[in-house]
Inverse folding.
């Protein structure tokens, strides 16, 4: 398989799984790319063999044998559950007309699995929270930060059901390398050709903001695309969220590392706040 051709969707038993399938199938169909559905089974945490000398050697070995057997049974159950999920996911993705769908089941750490496949990933689609973190109603999954830090591929973070193909998208543009990569992606990818494009920049310096937006608008126009540009003022996250709401934005594209006036790094503030507070999916780039 050639590099960066596959739309990869992470499938588990979370409430976001259906949306992950739908968004990934929409992306794969629109960009004419194969879709890979991944069910990753994390290994269970086994107790230490050192039981503090509280039981005898024979009893300890017998207990460890039982734990190994339990883990084996757990793994078989999870594998069967995963196969059922992948079958349903494949059927659901077929409804979007996706031509090539592959299902894959792996064991081990999810981030390690994704790193191994990184060279094949065009877009990674994940839910805002996984099956093990459904109780974090206003938070993000424990592995999401690690995944975003580890991968250098576009990551679409899904936080709501898929109702229809997004019609309006917003690019949070600040002139950084990541946001320029996002701009080039919008120009070159068929995913955004039919969308109403909004390019916004948060900056209280009007002259600086206008220069950045004019440059972005010029590149879009040269590619035959039209975009609404807007300078926003105030705190970055509230300004972006307000614009999202007021203009009925359905997809936000932004760099995962922001070069704003505070030099905030990933999860130093900006990216985490947007992930937690945004009501629409975010496509993150590094």
């Amino acid at each position: 398989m050639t590099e960066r051709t596959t739309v990869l969707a992470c499938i588990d038993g979370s409430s976001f799984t259906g949306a992950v399938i739908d968004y990934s199938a929409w992306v794969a169909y629109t960009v004419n790319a194969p879709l890979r559905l991944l069910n990753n089974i994390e290994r269970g945490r086994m107790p230490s063999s050192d039981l503090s000398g509280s039981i005898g050697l024979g009893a300890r070995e017998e207990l460890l044998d039982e734990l190994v057997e339990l883990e084996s049974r757990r793994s078989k159950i999870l594998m069967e559950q995963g196969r059922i999920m992948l079958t349903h996911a494949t059927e659901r993705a077929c409804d979007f007309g996706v031509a090539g769908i592959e299902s894959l089941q792996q064991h081990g750490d999810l981030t390690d699995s994704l790193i191994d496949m990184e060279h094949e990933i065009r877009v990674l689609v994940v839910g805002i929270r996984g099956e093990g973190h459904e109780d974090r109603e206003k938070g993000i999954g424990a592995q999401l930060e690690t995944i975003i830090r580890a991968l250098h591929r576009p990551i679409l973070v899904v936080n709501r059901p898929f109702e229809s193909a997004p019609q309006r998208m917003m690019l949070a543009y600040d002139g950084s390398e990541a946001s320029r990569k996002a701009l080039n992606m919008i120009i070159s990818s068929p995913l955004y050709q039919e969308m109403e494009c909004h390019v916004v920049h948060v900056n209280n310096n009007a002259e600086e903001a206008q220069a950045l937006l004019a440059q972005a608008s010029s590149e879009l126009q040269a590619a035959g695309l039209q975009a609404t540009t807007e300078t926003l003022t105030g705190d970055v996250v509230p300004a972006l969220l307000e614009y999202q709401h007021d203009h009925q934005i359905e997809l936000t594209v932004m760099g995962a590392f922001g070069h704003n006036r505070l030099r905030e790094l990933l999860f130093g503030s900006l990216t985490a706040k947007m992930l937690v507070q945004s009501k629409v999916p975010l496509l993150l780039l590094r």
Notes: The mean pLDDT is 85. The first strand starts at residue 6 and ends at 10.
